[in-house]
């Protein structure tokens, strides 16, 4: 397997074929995933094998979740030019409205702010998954989301993580997460106040592109 030497956060949204999945985990004391599970058909793209939480393709962790080389930009999902601005806008747009997360109605909650430490935690995990061709909340070195957050120096009182793989852009990965109860609840978690997110690409890995969102509230 080819290991890419460098992954870069990009202001471009990725296009290309490939299906994907997602998974979530949080600091509630239970890991709601750990391993990837299948996503609904309408949350997938066409091309690679999908997965979400209990199989291959994605993960979501709560503790209080394919591009094949084509990097042409898709239209941005909202205001802003950078990846961080666009992802934050997409998340806050969802949080601004009541959402049905797998039958549980989640009320609108306040907007989040972007945190660079949480971005670093997300980026490191996306790179790890892309380089080592896996999808899980457990890193290749055995790290948990909590470990990765604390390694940045962030002092948390609650956290949550969503991961996903294979979705071509922010719109696609957000649709997958919002269509999956655990991920949706992490995005709509009123106990978190900050977030960071990142993706990393490796065309030689199974899903091509790997996504991580990290949510938290500082202590």
UniProtKB/TrEMBL annotation:
Chain intervals with Low complexity compositional bias: 19-29, 47-72
Coiled coil, from the record: none
Domain SCP: 90-215
Keyword Signal listed: yes
Pfam families given in the database record: CAP
Region (Disordered): 19-82
Keyword check for Ubl conjugation: no
InterPro entries in the cross-refs: CAP_dom, CAP_sf
Signal sequence bounds: 1-24
Keyword terms, alphabetized: Signal
PANTHER family per UniProt: SCP DOMAIN-CONTAINING PROTEIN (PTHR31157:SF1)
UniProt protein name: CAP domain-containing protein
Organism, as annotated: Photobacterium rosenbergii
Top-level taxonomy: Bacteria, Pseudomonadati, Pseudomonadota, Gammaproteobacteria, Vibrionales
């Amino acid at each position: 397997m080819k290991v890419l030497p460098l992954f870069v956060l990009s202001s471009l949204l990725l296009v290309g074929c490939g299906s994907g999945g997602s998974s979530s985990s949080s600091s509630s004391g239970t890991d709601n995933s750990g391993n990837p599970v299948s996503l609904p058909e309408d949350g997938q793209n066409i091309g690679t094998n999908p997965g979400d939480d209990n199989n291959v393709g994605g993960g979501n962790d709560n503790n209080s979740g394919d591009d094949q080389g084509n990097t042409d930009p898709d239209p941005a999902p909202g205001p802003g030019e950078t990846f961080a601005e666009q992802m934050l806008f997409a998340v806050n747009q969802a949080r601004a409205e009541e959402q049905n997360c797998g039958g549980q109605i989640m009320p609108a909650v306040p907007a989040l702010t972007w945190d660079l430490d949480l971005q670093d935690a997300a980026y490191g995990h996306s790179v790890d998954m892309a380089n080592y061709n896996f999808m899980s909340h457990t890193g290749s070195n055995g790290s948990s989301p909590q470990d990765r957050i604390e390694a940045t120096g962030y002092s948390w009182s609650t956290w949550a993580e969503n991961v996903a793989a294979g979705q071509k852009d922010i719109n696609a990965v957000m649709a997958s997460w919002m269509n999956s109860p655990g991920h949706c609840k992490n995005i709509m978690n009123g106990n978190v106040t900050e977030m960071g997110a990142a993706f990393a690409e490796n065309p030689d890995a199974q899903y091509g592109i790997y996504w991580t969102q990290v949510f938290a509230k500082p202590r």
